[in-house]
Amino acid sequence: MILNNSSDFNQAYLLEYHQQTRNYLFAIIGYLHLLKKNSCLSTDISDEQAEYIKTIEDHCFQLLEHEKKLISILFLDCYRQSFSTTQLN
Predict the structure, then answer these.
(1) Phi, psi of 42 (to 5 degrees)
(2) Do residues 64 and 20 touch, judged by C-beta distance below 8 A?
(3) How many other β-carbons are positioned within 10 Å of the β-carbon of residue 32?
(4) What is the pLDDT along the chain (89 residues), one digit of tens a residue?
């Protein structure tokens, strides 16, 4: 993608930022999954801790859905800006 102005740079930066945030959320969800899986094999985790992990996981999935929507919007905006700039040249 060719960045022709600061607006293009800001959009590209935001897109990259939200993609990285999405990746962190995937990592957290994966870690929680492993934590739950390993905890199920032993009785080291209390019901309160299991509920807390489930709450964190639910929030991560909500944030992940939000990030996916933002990424789609930003990607389309970057594509439109790139396409309109290309058409003008």
Answers:
(1) -130, 170
(2) no
(3) 15
(4) 444 556 666 888 888 999 999 999 999 999 998 888 877 655 677 888 888 989 999 999 999 999 999 999 988 888 887 766 555 55
Q: Residues for the chain: how many in total?
A: 89
Residue 29 makes CB contacts below 8 A (sequence gap 6+) with 57, 60, 61, 64
| Cβ proximity of 57 and 32 under 8 Å | yes
The C-alpha atoms of residue 13 and residue 76 are separated, in whole angstroms, by: 14
pTM, two decimal places:
0.70
DSSP 3: -
Q: Encoding tokens for residue 42?
A: 């032993």
Helix ranges restricted to H, 1-89: 6-41, 47-88
